[in-house]
Design goal:
single chain, about 130 residues, mainly beta, 4-stranded antiparallel beta sheet, 11 strands
């Protein structure tokens, strides 16, 4: 079992930065791949980024490549999403998720992730 709690969301101007954190509890966190998804108003939830249990492999959705960075600290049971050069279209509720699948080509699928946080709101003003 893995329990996830996101934090770090807020209101920021376009071009600004935010760092989201996801604190995990559960003995198996260090063996789980972790992902971030987001859901904008009126849209379906979609994949943002994911990282292997070791941190050695990361995957990003095309629109955030070069702007967002996912990382993890297994000693702190925490995964991060550093978001730079934010755009109004990045406005969404951001969710942290965990999976024991270590196949990066599957990570864009929500159903691969068994554990989810409650979400944190990110609002980017123009």
């Amino acid at each position: 079992q893995v329990q996830l709690v996101e934090s770090g969301g807020g209101l920021v101007q376009a071009g600004g930065s935010l760092r989201l954190s996801c604190a995990a509890s559960g003995r198996t966190f260090s063996s789980a791949a972790m992902g971030w998804f987001r859901q904008a108003p009126g849209k379906e939830r979609g994949f943002v980024a994911a990282i292997t249990w070791s941190g050695g492999n990361t995957v990003y959705e095309d629109s955030v490549k070069g702007r967002f960075t996912i990382s993890r600290d297994n000693a702190k049971n925490t995964v991060y999403l550093q978001m730079n050069s934010l755009k109004p279209e990045d406005t969404a509720v951001y969710y942290c998720a965990a999976t024991f699948s270590q196949s990066p080509y599957l990570w864009s699928r929500e159903d691969v992730f068994a554990y989810w946080g409650q979400g944190t709101q990110v609002t980017v003003s123009s």
